[in-house]
Write a structure and sequence with these properties.
The complex is a heterodimer of chains A (184) and B (155). With 184 residues, chain A is mainly α. Chain A is built from 9 helices and no strands. In chain A, helix 4 packs across helix 8. Chain A starts with a helix and ends with a helix. About 5% of the residues of chain A have low confidence. Chain B is elongated. By secondary structure, chain B is mainly alpha-helical. The model of chain B has no long low-confidence stretch (mean pLDDT 82). In chain B, helix 1 crosses helix 3 and helix 2 packs across helix 3. Chain B starts with 7 loop residues before the first helix and ends with a helix. Helix content of chain B is 81%, strand content 0%. The chains are: A mainly alpha (184), B mainly alpha (155). Chains A and B meet through helix 2, helix 3, helix 6, helix 7 and helix 9 of A and helix 1, helix 3 and helix 4 of B.
């Protein structure tokens, strides 16, 4: 990022290649719609590029990157243009194939179908969480960020992050309990 | 939930490894004895696994090209601004603003002087107006001169 700050485009492309999938996935898990998630991820990378000169390496680069991603996603939610359309993982086709689908090809069609259904239910339950709870949970579970880093990303206290994650887990526990048994 | 059970948010933070050493040890000891809290911790971990196992998405080719296109536009914009930078550095903008103000003042004053110059039609109108005023004055003088006669006749 220090090289990007000096105007090195190649360095930016390296960062982009390294983080593009993570950011797109984060946005997708946040909004539940593939096309919108790519628009949001694009916005994230353009903002990173624009803000590169102001970047100060106080924290990990990913903390800063996902802070921007969280802001972009929360803004999208505030705009009211957000549509709760859930892309079914088994109806993507084309480019929208999950990366892990390649591994799933080894599974029987029945197991694949069940896994897709389960993922859809989890995605729907996630999409019903309030914006900050959803962001905090995703940053914790998918991003493996600490409470302190999440507090910086969301712009609140560590204690608030603790409450957000707890409430999110409580809600998901109620909605996803039927899936606990068959998930190993 | 038993009265001596810790707050559920503590169990959630414990699942994330976010409790301090002492608090974590106390909660661990409690969980080993309390089936309810153990069950709660298992449920939270199941939720985490379900979210964690959601597949990552591949990025479409159009996404990459869209981002690169956007970056090129941004880079062009920034080089355009870079080109303007030397022009806008130091006292140059002050001189430029001063020159612009002077030019605007000249144009404004020229317009005003131009408006003060009369056209031929306007000169004729002014002359006629002066003649009319003189005519009125002459009429009044005649009236004054004949005032004694008019007064005598009326009385």
């Amino acid at each position: 990022m220090v090289r990007v700050k000096k105007g090195d485009m190649n360095a930016f492309h390296l960062l982009f290649d390294k983080h593009k999938q993570g950011v797109v996935s984060f946005c997708y898990r946040y909004c539940g719609h593939r096309a919108i998630s790519e628009e949001l991820a694009q916005e994230v990378f353009l903002r990173v590029f624009k803000a590169a000169r102001r970047y100060r390496p106080k924290a990990r680069f990913t903390t800063w990157l996902y802070r921007i991603a969280t802001n972009v996603c929360l803004n999208e939610l505030r705009k009211g243009e957000y549509r709760q359309q859930i892309d079914s993982l088994d109806h993507k086709g084309g480019d929208g194939v999950p990366v892990e689908a390649q591994d799933k090809e080894k599974l029987t069609p029945e197991t694949q179908f069940q896994e897709c259904q389960r993922d859809d239910l989890v995605q729907q339950a996630l999409s019903q969480l309030p914006g900050k709870q959803r962001a905090a949970l995703l940053l914790r579970i998918k991003g493996e960020f600490s409470y302190r880093e999440i507090a910086k990303q969301i712009g609140c206290t560590e204690n608030h992050v603790k409450v957000l994650i707890y409430r999110g887990r409580q809600q998901l526990k109620k909605k996803l309990r039927p899936l606990f048994g068959d998930h190993k | 939930m038993k009265p001596d059970c810790p707050d559920r948010s503590q169990v959630s933070a414990f699942a994330d490894g976010e409790l301090g050493r002492d608090a974590a040890a106390r909660l661990e000891a409690h969980i080993s004895l309390c089936s309810h809290c153990r069950e709660l911790l298992c449920a939270y971990r199941s939720v985490d696994r379900l979210i964690g196992d959601l597949p990552e998405l591949s990025v479409s080719a159009s996404f990459e090209s869209d981002v690169r296109e956007g970056l090129e536009k941004l880079a062009e914009g920034s080089t355009w601004r870079e080109g303007l930078k030397p022009l806008l550095s130091g006292w140059r903008p002050v001189w430029a603003i001063g020159a612009a103000v002077c030019l605007a003042a000249v144009v404004f004053l020229y317009g005003r002087f131009d408006k003060q110059a009369l056209s031929m039609e306007e000169v004729v109108i002014v002359e006629n107006l002066e003649l009319f005023q003189n005519f009125e004055l002459i009429q009044k003088l005649e009236l004054l001169e004949a005032w004694d006669r008019i007064e005598a006749e009326s009385s």
